[in-house]
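Dear H.,

Thanks for agreeing to be a second pair of eyes. The structure we're designing against is below in token form, covering all 126 positions.
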């Protein structure tokens, strides 16, 4: 990109990327601990007033149901998240005479995905 603006060999670009290679394994647990009694179709009945739905048959015997339903999901994030990006451009002053450094900083920042909230920066020197 810079070669087309200032000519081949008239610019040098240095990029430093600080990366985070920590692997994070967040665990998501979705558990349902019922407040009442589970019915025959594992439908929760808070007060247990309906004996058939509360897990009791007509003869009064107790039917065991699944009282806790738990799903554990583990997601592994890929390492290598960009923590900070610093780009420095040095241009030959004779070749860069008509180039506006502020506009070039914006162009390079947009092309590289610079995020000022993350602390990224672009500097253009002539």
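And this is the sequence the design step returned. I haven't edited it by hand at all.
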């Amino acid at each position: 990109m810079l070669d087309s603006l200032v000519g081949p060999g008239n610019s040098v670009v240095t990029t430093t990327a600080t990366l985070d290679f920590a692997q994070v394994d967040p665990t998501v647990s979705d558990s349902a601990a019922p407040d009442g009694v589970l019915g025959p179709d594992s439908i929760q009945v808070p007060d247990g007033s309906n004996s058939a739905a509360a897990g009791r048959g007509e003869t009064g015997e107790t039917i065991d149901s699944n009282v806790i339903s738990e799903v554990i999901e583990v997601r592994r994030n890929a390492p290598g998240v960009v923590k900070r990006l610093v780009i420095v451009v040095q241009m030959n002053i004779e070749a860069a005479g008509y180039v506006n450094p502020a506009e070039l900083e914006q162009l390079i920042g947009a092309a590289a995905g610079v995020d000022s909230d993350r602390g990224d920066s672009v500097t253009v020197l002539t």
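Two observations from my side: The longest strand covers residues 81-91. The longest helix spans residues 101-112.

Warmly,
E.
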